[in-house]
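tool_call predict_complex ligand=iron/sulfur cluster
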Amino acid sequence: MAKNYVKIGMSSCGIAAGADEVYQALLDFAKEKNLDIEIKKVGCLGMCWAEPLIEVKIGDEKPVIYRNVNKDIAIKILENEVFPELKIKENPKQKKIVLRNCGKIDPESIEDYLENQGYQAIKKAISELGKEKTIEEIKKSGLRGRGGAGFPTWLKWTNCRKVNAEQKYIICNGDEGDPGAYMDRSILEGDPHSVIEGMMIAGYAIGASKGYFYIRAEYPLAVERVQKAIDQCHDRGLLGDDFDLEIRLGAGAFVCGEETALIASIEGKRGYPRPRPPYPAIKGLWGNPTVINNVETLANVPYIILNGGEDFENTKVFALTGKIKYSGLVEVPIGTTLKEIIEDIGGGIPNNKQIKAVQTGGPSGGIIPKEYLAHPVSYESLEELGSIMGSGGMIVMDEDDCPVDVAKFFTKFCVEESCGKCSPCRIGTSQLHRILKKISKGKARDKDLPQLKRLCFAMQQASLCGLGQTAPNPVLSSLRYFEDEYKEHIKEGKCRAGKCFNK
Ligand SMILES: Cc1cc2nc3c(=O)[nH]c(=O)nc-3n(C[C@H](O)[C@H](O)[C@H](O)COP(=O)(O)O)c2cc1C
Ligand code: SF4
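tool_result ok
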């Protein structure tokens, strides 16, 4: 790395805000003035509210991050003009393990990854640890799946490893269909090699010679960068005969993120879930033992192997959105409170409004009212509150948001995304949505609330896959904490937030 540099966040968020124009202008300027400076593309630093964002280091000065620059401002910064109002710092409450390289290295350069301990972990796994000890380190770390269900990663790997089979597979689930969630996209765009290395280690531990990335087609930049990274690994002999990787594209169906539907989709069939057992670890892709792990889960793996599982502090990346000053990606130790995330990192609620609740876990999650903000964010505590950690969507609601309206939004999403294979979900989601629409239009009666609850219960018990089993969660959690507001809609024709009745 040259002594002088400008790093520009060039993930989808930065590019959407105009980062490519800033990048090109800086390249041209540096060339024209013959400056001794490296102009470097990097991934997203997580501060999506501040894009386009640049980090500048000149001489022996400490690097400085500037927010919301345009090409003129960026050039003036290189001409030594000072913009104190644009200087920002990374929040020290965050702990970056998964996002360790995002915003730091060039995601399109394998050399950058190698300079940052890249592909040292797979080397250590093979030459020092061996398969069993590799899984042992993952067990010691306490790593659990970040794709939603929180299943212990070591146990899934062990179950697959124990099966005697000629062919096994590892799949990286990059489908990320939850509305509001985009951490997996950002990891794939900002640090694709770390996920590839995680897949190599998983593949080695379970005995798989082939792996697939399943990435939604709506993520073209992620697909491009992962493909580039795979090609670079081929060129260097890191992928090839013993273990190889390929990309398969999803076509925007939420249900294709469910592991059995995802497998069907890769097999070229319609993306329908099937009953489990058998679990994919025993009988997966083309009937062979298959481990499916989420992008974020896999990005943790090289770090754990390099640094040891014993002292590993589990983190979670959240996509913090909604009524929040600083929206973006936040990586915090598990156990950080909702209040710390929202107030200390997210900067609190804009426009002098009051916080009302926070929605976590997307369409499978729940609405947690402000009284519980002191609760730590962990798999267990969020479940106790009637929500889930899920994949990491976190939407902040203020007093202008209505719980009935939010429940209706997620239910509509599930109506559209239900694959229709089983009737509890196909009919249940439509019926839930029908009743919620009635409530929000002031046309519901007293008997509709108990019916809503009965429907939710039936769906939880009888649906075939996680989509239908968890689709009632936004409804049930909003009823648990905001039943008085539901009743106001029904009995008084009143929506405190002013959201309903006119739609
Ligand atoms: C409807 C539905 C959608 C899902 N979508 C995703 C997804 O986009 N990404 C993901 O990693 N897991 C998703 N999952 C969870 C996967 O089925 C699976 O549990 C996960 O990929 C396993 O990886 P992990 O153990 O590393 O979390 C979804 C589950 C359901 C029921
Ligand atoms: S629960 Fe819903 S998404 Fe899952 S199989 Fe049944 S209809 Fe399809």
